[in-house]
Specification:
The chain is mainly α. The protein has seven helices and no strands. Helix 3 packs antiparallel against helix 4. It is flat.
Length: 137
């Protein structure tokens, strides 16, 4: 159903004009308060020599060493799988977009440019980057 002009549309625009800056302001204030809390719970020297994340050090100073270890383990459990997750290769991405791997390999064989030198200034670099990526493929 198309959006109609009238009170509904004007209210949503007014709401977005208010909610956007308000939400951004709230996020900035909360980040500043988090940084103030970190530095009030630990000195810069403690942060430098601790060997743990600032959040874990904060939890350790406020709630005790058990909380520091629990938070360190939690952060590692969240971070490590994201860091080692397999990333799709260019051929896998082309399959996601409905192209077959055979057409991708044909494109690789028909590419004649293997130069990795940048194009002259003022030219479109997108086509050159795509050609280099295909030859590396």
């Amino acid at each position: 159903m198309p959006m109609q002009d009238g009170p509904t549309r004007s209210n949503s625009i007014r709401t977005l004009k208010t909610a956007g800056p308000l939400g951004l302001g709230i996020c900035v204030v909360l980040c500043l308060l988090a940084n103030i809390a970190y530095f009030s719970a630990a000195t810069k020297a403690e942060i430098d020599k601790s060997g743990v994340t600032v959040t874990a050090l904060f939890f350790g100073n406020i709630f005790g060493s058990v909380a520091e270890h629990v938070l360190s383990v939690f952060i590692n459990v969240i971070t490590v799988p994201l860091a080692v997750a397999p990333r799709p290769q260019p051929q896998q991405e082309s399959q996601l977009h409905g192209q077959t791997q055979a057409s991708s390999s044909q494109t690789q064989h028909t590419t004649t440019s293997t130069s990795t030198t940048p194009p002259a200034s003022g030219t479109d670099t997108t086509a050159a980057n795509e050609a280099v990526n295909r030859t590396r493929g």
